[in-house]
């Protein structure tokens, strides 16, 4: 494994977010110098005193709330592209872009459209479109691009559907479950920041297979996840079985509704593609334990 400690600073956009905060903490603990970039009113970041020695990580964007297509275009597409343009101007060597596992399966043709096709949810489209535009820009300008497509992140600052699941469990609410539930991929925050760290320091040849699809093995079905979380919270799991035909019916709903109901509509996860030579430091169970511990403290 060829690793080199970057001689310069790591510039981080979205450093105040869940992943950005954990990444900054981790890199500083490892003795690396990080710079949290600031954004203006238009969500544009300025590369402060960037030099060719710096590397850039883009963790910025709208991730946990529904937004308009215009907001996704501004924050999830224009923002990383603007960062890449500034980075190539000063000669930054490597850009790591936090995309999402949800970008998988969206074709270059669909991502090439100015607005998302009807049956694709705008968040997933915005991530795939950003990937496409970044690839074009970076290829033309000699900037190394690493695209990371993480699954849902579990961290002690748990939010969104995972928090709802934990809250439902502690309140004793039954979980609606379809009979055949595909596994739901998750990645622990420690493993994700470790992968980002690795992609910052590994040899250029090792990032050739980007985009990397990151999740912890084995992905659990919602029922298994619910059972595991119940065990950790010492609660008895309660499920409400739903009829099988409901899944087929749900797939005919508009994209917005499908996004809201996504916990019920799991597709099998795409194969994991990890950076060659990188090993996740923790197992899935340890990542879930860290999440449950954080939930207990704040919940
Ligand atoms: N968390 C997950 O489960 C997950 C899974 C897959 C992919 N991702 C991707 O990973 C990235 C980081 O996720 P995260 O969980 O750290 O998200 P987060 O906690 O919401 O943080 C996102 C950060 O982006 C910046 N930002 C820029 N424009 C924004 C806007 N218009 N609205 C809100 N924030 C804006 C903010 O940073 P500053 O205020 O510091 O500038 C914010 O703290 C996102 O791009 C997300 O799509 C996340």
3D architecture notes:
This protein is α/β, with parallel strands linked by helices and 299 residues long. The protein has a domain at 10-158 and 184-219 and 271-278: NAD(P)-binding Rossmann-like Domain (Rossmann fold, 3-Layer(aba) Sandwich). The chain has ten helices and twelve strands. The protein has helices at 18-29, 69-90, 108-111, 122-141, 160-171, 189-201, 222-233, 245-250, 255-260, 284-298; strands at residues 10-13, 34-36, 55-58, 94-98, 144-150, 152-154, 175-177, 183-184, 186-188, 212-214, 220-221, 239-241. β3, α2 and β4 form a beta-alpha-beta unit. α1 (18-29) crosses α6 (189-201), α2 packs parallel to α4 (122-141) and α5 crosses α7 (222-233). The longest helix has 22 residues, at 69-90. The N and C termini lie far apart (41 Å). It binds NADP nicotinamide-adenine-dinucleotide phosphate. NADP nicotinamide-adenine-dinucleotide phosphate binds at residues 14-20, 39, 43, 59-64, 75, 79, 98, 100, 150, 152-153.
Task: Give the tags.
two-stranded parallel ribbon, binds NADP nicotinamide-adenine-dinucleotide phosphate, 299 residues, Rossmann fold, 41% helix, alpha/beta, 6-stranded parallel beta sheet
Give average pLDDT, whole number: 89
Helix proportion of residues, in percent? 40-55%
Overall SS class:
alpha/beta
Measured distance between first and last alpha carbons: 41 Å
Overall geometry comes to globular
- The CATH architecture of the domain at 10-158 and 184-219 and 271-278 comes to 3-Layer(aba) Sandwich
| Topology-level CATH name of the domain at 10-158 and 184-219 and 271-278 | Rossmann fold
Helix and strand string, N-terminal first? EHEEHEHHEEHEEEHEEHEHHH
InterPro entries: Epimerase_deHydtase, Lipid_A_modif_metabolic_enz, NAD(P)-bd_dom_sf
Protein name: UDP-glucose 4-epimerase
Organism: Desulfuromonas thiophila
Domain NAD-dependent epimerase/dehydratase: 10-161
């Amino acid at each position: 494994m060829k690793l080199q400690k970057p001689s310069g600073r790591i510039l981080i956009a979205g450093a105040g977010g869940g992943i950005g905060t954990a990444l900054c903490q981790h890199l500083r603990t490892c003795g690396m110098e990080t710079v949290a970039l600031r954004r203006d009113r238009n969500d544009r970041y300025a590369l402060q005193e960037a030099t060719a020695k710096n590397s850039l990580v883009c963790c910025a964007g709208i991730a946990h709330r529904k937004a308009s297509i215009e907001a996704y275009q501004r924050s999830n597409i224009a923002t990383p592209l603007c960062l890449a343009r500034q980075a190539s101007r000063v000669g930054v060597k490597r850009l790591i872009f936090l995309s999402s596992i949800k970008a998988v399966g969206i074709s270059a043709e669909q991502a090439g459209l100015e607005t998302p096709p009807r049956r694709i949810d705008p968040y997933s489209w915005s991530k795939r479109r950003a990937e496409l535009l970044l690839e074009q820009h970076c290829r033309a300008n000699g900037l190394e691009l690493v695209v990371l497509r993480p699954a849902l992140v579990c961290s002690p600052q748990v939010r969104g559907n995972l928090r709802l699941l934990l809250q439902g469990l502690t309140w004793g609410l039954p979980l609606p479950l379809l009979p055949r539930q595909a596994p739901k991929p998750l990645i622990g925050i420690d493993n994700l920041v470790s992968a980002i760290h690795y992609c910052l320091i590994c040899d250029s040849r090792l990032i050739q297979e980007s985009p990397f699809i990151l999740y912890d093995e084995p992905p659990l079905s919602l029922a298994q996840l619910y059972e595991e979380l119940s065990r950790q919270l010492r609660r008895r799991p309660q499920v409400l079985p739903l009829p099988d035909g409901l899944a087929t019916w749900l797939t005919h709903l508009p994209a917005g509704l499908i996004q809201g109901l996504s916990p019920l509509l799991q597709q099998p996860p795409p194969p994991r593609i990890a950076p060659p030579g990188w090993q996740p430091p923790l197992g899935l169970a340890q990542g879930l334990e860290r999440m449950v511990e954080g939930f207990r403290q704040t919940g």
